[in-house]
Amino acid sequence: MHADSTLVAPASGKLVFAARGLRKVYHTGEVDVVALDGVEVELHESEFVVLLGPSGSGKSTLLNILGGLDVPSSGNLSYKGWALDGAEENTLTLFRRNCVGFVFQFYNLIPSLTARENVALITGIARDPMPPEEALAMVGLQARMDHFPSQLSGGEQQRVAIARAIAKRPELLLCDEPTGALDVTTGITVLEAIERINRELGTLTVIITHNAVMAEMADRVLYLSDGKIVKERLNPLRLPASGLEW
Amino acid sequence: MLDPLDLKLLRDLGRMKGQVLAVSLVMACGLAMMIMTRSLIFTLDSTRSAYYQKNAMADVFATLKRAPLAVAERIAALPGVAVVEPRVAVDVTLDLPGVAEPATGRILSLPEDGGPQKLNRLFLRSGRMPRPDARREVVLGEAFAIANGLQAGAALVVVINGRRETLEVCGIGLSPEFVFEARAGETLPDHRRFSVIWMNYRPLAVAYNLDGAFNDICLDLTPGAAAEPVIAEVDRLLAPYGASGAYTRKEQASAQRLDDELRVLTSLAVAYPLVFLSVAAFMVNAVLSRIVRLQREQIAQMKALGYGSRQVGVHYLKFVLVIGVLGTLIGGVGGRLLGGVLVNLYTLFFRFPELEFQMDYSALGLALLVSLGASVAGVLTVVWQAVKLPPAEAMRPEPPADFQPSLFERIGLTPLFSPAMRMALRNIERRPWQAVFTACGLALATGLMVLPGAMSDSIDYLLTFQWNRQQRQDVAVFLTEPGSGSGFHDLEHLPGVIRAEPIRSVPARLRFGHRSRKLSVTGIAPGTHLNRLLDERGDVIEMPDEGLLMSKKLAEVIGARVGDMVQVEVMEGRRPVLQVPIRGLVCDFAGVAAYMDIAALRRLMQESDTINGAFIAIDHGRWDEFMRALKDTPRSAAVMVKRDQLSAFRETTAASIGMIRKLYFALATIVAFGVVYNSARIALSERSRELATLRVVGFRLAEVRGVLIGELAILVLAALPAGLLFGRGLAMFIMASFSTETVRMPIVINPATYSLAVTVVLTAAILSFALVSRMLGQLDMVGVLKARD
User: Which of A13, B100, B341, B781 could serve as A45's disulfide partner, Cβ 3.0–4.6 Å?
Assistant: First the structure.
């Protein structure tokens, strides 16, 4: 497979994203940094995709562009046939609000709101949200809903972040190093939550990680290097998160 | 090569230059005011001392009817007396060409022996002194000469003892005795209508039948001599000669006016800067708290690298030192410039040979100390927290801040609040002191904004009260000598007079306990329509049949209350000493006065229908006719035209207060903007992670803005009422410090003033929010979220 040929998943889900020749160049002072250099990729409904690659390979840039946090310098990106490249700020806000759930390495919860209220932030603005209690139950936190972030462990905080991301019933869940700040046991609990969302809600899930072990739970693994997808691997069998070890 | 920590300091400061400037400016406002007022005090005080010293300002003054010059020699021989200068002093009417209203002059004689003056020596601005044998040459007071465009060589028509004389101006001068050049008892200068004039003794003495005699005397005391026993002796010696009581320099009109001015400046030099510096201390605290929180990891790294707690502490204190020094520099330059401009205002009131602004450099040093003291006091706990943080702990990301439901939610009001509002309330409750500090800063800014409006309102009220409601006459005419009822009849029948009311005033010393004041007790008719006595609400106080009405300020000065008996030592005629009860207090804003029923006063004086003058209302169509007739009335000495007094007030007091008001307004605006901008910047930086999270999960920019502004809006709204109350208190304090025996300010604050203060603070808030919102739009969402706390 060529790095520049379009990667098509064998999964049967409908096409969600189609990227053609995506480039992203950052102008920092006198130097132009090419973060993405002609990425071609298609992502489908219900797919579980892991992006692997060294630091500076362009993983986060790709994730940010997919999630509507950034726009490409050139190339085309469509979401369900709807062009995202060159979209207005308001369009991108609506896209994030209704379609995308984000999970970051640092949980980014609002410390002054309880677990339930952090989730309710989204349910208050999304188009078709699930009740905050249901989202929290999906990540196993039904008993800790009225706790403030300071009263929760790291893993619990990250699960609240996941509940917040999925409460809007997103079609796309983007996770940037979701276990980066957690120990193994807690990390696996968090991955189980993500896995469950993917399975039960059919959400297209993309995870960025340095941790190659995590690739085992994906349908498809994409390897990035120097802003390009250099390799793709299909897993004939997905390992459950509980079976991972690192 | 700079120390790496200092390089870090400079770059950190560079990144937050907006805030550094905001805090420094607020500090500079306070310091500029302090430096300016202290320098003005220094300027006035040192100029006055030098002038008094160099031109031999007298220590004791006395006026009398007529005493032979030999009496002066007996006074000179009294123990404690160093120098005496007897003279002739008379009030005359001046007839200025082209001016309908008569002006008033006070002619003072030069020494009888033709030698140089020993006391109250003239400073000649131009021209020369009268030749020893000259009969018509005079030196004219500078303020009057300038106001009327007169120079040496000009002719001056004067009614001397009923005879019109044309005098020749040979010089323009000024005297330490008339730094405040106004008629005795007048609180405002009217340079167009009043002049001091100096002429040779003989022609003046002869004209008033005082040759070989004097009716006014000045004394210099020997160093260390007490004034009281000398005054008692002088009074004893002069009593047979119709003296109205000697008094010290402290009670001398011009000196007293200067003292009052210095007293006002002294209280301003403390109160006003104190407020600014308190605001600045709050702001510095907020700024540094934020830096220390944001640089938690850097502090840990510094310590891990081997920097000691002291070095770290000093590093963070340097932030404050830079702000303090910057504030002092801007304040110093600002104070110097403002002082240079404001000193010119004093030339409206005070005449010195030279009034040059002198910078009080000790004030600059004090400013530096005060500003650094205030800022360091504001941040000591913050720096201490930074220093005591163990490095290992600081390296770990800060745990999420501890929160709990706010008080409103605990009492069951949760459903009332949106998530954004809940965030705001819980934030405020979690760090109540920070919220209180911010709200205090905003309240102080609001309060400062009330002050300039309050000044304006008070002046408007004063103008209406004094010139519309209290004084309804057009002119007050005073006679050279007390006259009989026929004198009143003459005045009453001048052309154009609509109504005239007699005045009988007698010089007296009012004594209550150990305190006393020398003034005139004025007898007026009950039911008077023109010069009415009013209480604080502006209602007319009926003149009681017996007893005194007096200025509230006078009662305060002598420590008496309504119902107390005061001793009235009359210094005219048969000089009775009487015990008179105080029947009521009068609200007035200039000078102090005591009033009696005119009939009662005449009974006490055992006289029939004596008058000293009259309040007169004139048919304005016959104004010039009236004035022409008045100029020809030989016995009228002083004419006070209300219209002129009003314009003099507008040109002097109102103008200078107006200028100060503008200055205060500008400073208060700077503070309001500074405080809100600083708070908004801090909120933005402290909550950038929350705000970025909201943006990422799909909140619109406007919605996120709402979250950022919510907390500040609550603080602004909470601070406004407190600020208005504080403003009222501050205005009352400042007005009270303006309240002297010569001039007072009523405390009046109109709703419009409060509205303006609220509007300015809200505008400052909205503009600051707009600025910060723009920064919010530029927030690097991903960068913030991927960074550790």
Answer: A13
